[in-house]
Write a structure and sequence with these properties.
alpha/beta, seven-stranded mixed β-sheet, 20 strands, 41% helix, binds adenosine-5'-triphosphate, ATP-binding protein, ATP-binding, Hsp90_fam
């Protein structure tokens, strides 16, 4: 048996850097975050190991002319041995050891990788450091690629560390102070230690997170929250804020805000900043917000969330799910509170996000209860609350499923009853839920069941039925005798939507528009549709003109001006429907017939009164 050869795995540092720079982090700029985080951890270390007279401070200074960026801290510093063992050893760090020793939750570093990301944005990295363990010694670490490095004595400095990056050309914007400040504001908003930029005496994170501030006057607390939201929100003006307070089973705290910009039902402008131990981990954790909350942004912190190695994503573990559940709860509770305490803001929320809220109310029963009387649904008479639609429909909620104004419009405009536009986002399900919860009947116009309710059929002897049919219908129309309101409306033509579809699918034109496979399938379906009737003509027996027509039927034929006028009316009401919209010819004939009938009536001497 031969002894196996034992070899050490080689690390291609250049390859590893490419993975880090291009794949592990969403943007190489997060190197800045990593350096600030190291400075923070170093201050925590000093507080634990050498607290006497220690004032923690982190300062980030840039020099646009030189293209450099330097992150300084007053932390523990590093000895020569520590530089080699921790700073320059990938996957190792003192931070992890410190956490294990002290069981502290304050430290951020975990993986021993972060420092490496500096080489993704810098051509050269220089670190001057003086350890509290040997304050008389200052060392300079330098490296171009992270692969090889030098250590040499340097001019004395106070205990602490300064990491200077000579930025690559494409990352030079970090040497611009305002760009730097904007990024730091996001990264460090919740960091408990002060982070200064340049020689500014005020820290970028001087304003504490609102949920960490003790009891403030309600108006001041509200202003603080809005101010915090404004600083973090990049796209929208915050309209109002909602607190995420402590809840059982999770440590999540934070703030949500509703955008002061209109959304549609399907708009998804969700955004969530997630901080873990004060550092921004994920600036787009939208999945933690409920899917219906397309109009909400926020910032949260939780020490229970575990970052993935990229530290820009979160592990989808039970803690993650608990945080998501707590956020959803807080959002619903928060909306209730805004409704109660901030009527002006609430009015704006409803105005801006009515359509999205229709969808939201369907996803959460408590939201439904909150919003049922506040939201409006689109109707033929404009946007109206469901209760109003119901009142004007005398207890019934009429909804149309047709995308364009059809017979429903003619009929219901005559009745002055609003019809819900059932094809718009959330409208019909919301109305149905409303009827379920608050009572009421939804009548879906255009469906067989709906039509039966709107036009209750009436008995008519066969000969009278045949007479009306001969006088008023053209081929393809079926006459149905009915009694319906308003009595002033003599007839309504209701196109058969399935027959309409059959005609469209089977037309030559469709062959060009629909992929042939799909067309074949659709034709199999439409072949079963009886298209001999393409519209039902509901004739209103309660209408005086129809009643008179029936009374005088013995002396009337199709040339009678009264019949011509009614036939023209059929064409006019058909004109409002989609099917007939293309039948310009039919409308034209009807207009001519209408004109002739009027002339005949004018020419007929009126009986003396
Ligand atoms: N500014 C600093 N002051 C003192 N020590 C530092 C500093 N920066 C880095 N170090 C040391 O170098 C080690 C490695 O840093 P690195 O950023 O690579 O990893 P980490 O911070 O431990 O973990 P993570 O990859 O999760 O950030 C740290 O654990 C710390 O011991």
């Amino acid at each position: 048996m031969t002894t196996p050869e034992i070899l050490a795995t080689q690390v291609d540092l250049f390859g590893l850097m490419t993975v880090l720079g291009e794949h592990l982090y969403s943007t190489p700029f997060v190197a800045l975050r990593e350096l600030v985080q190291n400075a923070h951890d170093s201050c925590v270390r000093r507080r634990l190991e050498d607290p006497a007279g220690f004032t923690p401070e982190i300062r980030v200074v840039c020099d646009p002319a030189a293209g450099t960026l330097a992150v300084s801290d007053t932390g523990a510093g590093l000895t020569r041995d520590e530089i080699v063992r921790y700073l320059a050893t990938i996957g190792a760090g003192y931070t992890r050891k410190l956490r294990e020793q002290h069981g502290t939750d304050d430290l951020i570093g975990l993986f021993g990788l972060g420092f490496l990301s500096a080489f993704v944005i810098a051509t050269r990295v220089a670190v001057t450091t003086s350890s509290y363990q040997s304050p008389d010694t200052t060392l300079l670490y330098q490296s171009r690629s992270g692969e090889r490095f030098s250590i040499e004595p340097a001019a004395a400095r106070p205990v602490g560390t300064t990491v200077t990056l000579h930025l690559k050309d494409n990352f030079r914007e970090l040497s611009d102070e305002s760009a730097l400040r904007a990024r730091l504001l996001h990264y460090c908003a919740l960091l408990p230690l002060p982070v200064y930029v340049g020689d500014d005496p005020v820290a970028v994170n001087a304003q504490p997170a609102p949920w960490r501030v003790g009891d403030a006057h309600p108006a001041r607390a509200r202003a603080l929250r809005l101010d915090f939201a404004r600083r973090l929100e990049r796209r929208f003006e915050p309209l109002c804020t909602l607190d995420i307070g402590p809840r059982e089973g999770t440590d999540v705290r934070g703030l949500l805000w509703i955008h002061d910009a209109a959304t549609y039902g399907t708009s998804d402008n969700r955004n969530l900043h997630v901080y873990v131990r004060g550092m921004l981990l994920d600036d787009d954790a939208r999945e933690l917000l409920p899917a219906w909350a397309g109009f909400v942004s926020g910032a949260i912190e939780s020490a229970k969330l575990t970052p993935t190695a990229s530290r820009e994503d979160l592990q989808r573990d039970p803690a993650y799910r608990a945080v998501a559940a707590a956020i959803a709860e807080a959002l619903v509770d928060g909306m209730k509170q805004v409704a109660e305490r901030e009527p002006e803001a609430w009015r704006r929320v409803l105005l801006r996000h009515n359509e999205a809220l229709l969808g939201a109310a369907l996803c959460d029963d408590r939201l439904f209860e909150l919003l049922a009387d506040e939201l409006t649904v689109p109707t033929s008479e404009g946007d109206l609350p469901v209760a109003v639609v119901q009142r004007r429909g005398q207890g019934k909620l009429y909804a149309s499923l047709s995308p364009r104004g059809g017979f429903e419009e003619v009929l219901f405009r005559a009745l002055r009853v609003p019809v819900v536009v059932g094809t718009r986002y959330g409208a019909l399900p919301f109305v149905r839920r409303h009827a379920d919860r608050r009572g009421g009947t939804v009548i879906e116009l255009g469906t067989a069941a709906g039509n039966k309710r709107v036009f209750p059929p009436a008995d008519l002897p066969a000969d009278q039925q045949a007479f009306l049919s001969n006088m008023l219908t053209r081929p393809g129309q079926r006459l149905i005798a009915a009694r319906f309101a308003p009595a002033e409306l003599p007839l309504v033509l209701v196109p058969d939507r399935e027959a309409e579809l059959k005609r469209r699918v089977e037309s030559d034109e469709a062959a060009g528009r629909i992929a042939s496979g799909a067309l074949g399938l659709m034709r199999m379906f439409t072949a079963k549709i009886d298209a001999t009737v393409d519209a039902d003509l509901y004739v209103n027996l309660d209408n005086p003109a129809i009643a008179r027509l029936l009374e005088q039927r013995a002396g009337i034929d199709a040339t009678h001006p009264g019949v011509k006028l009614l036939r023209a009316l059929v064409a006019f009401v058909a004109g409002a429907s989609e099917a007939a919209a293309n039948e310009a010819e039919g409308l034209h004939t009807a207009l001519a017939e209408y004109g002739r009938a009027v002339c005949e009536l004018l020419d007929t001497p009126r009986p003396a009164r």
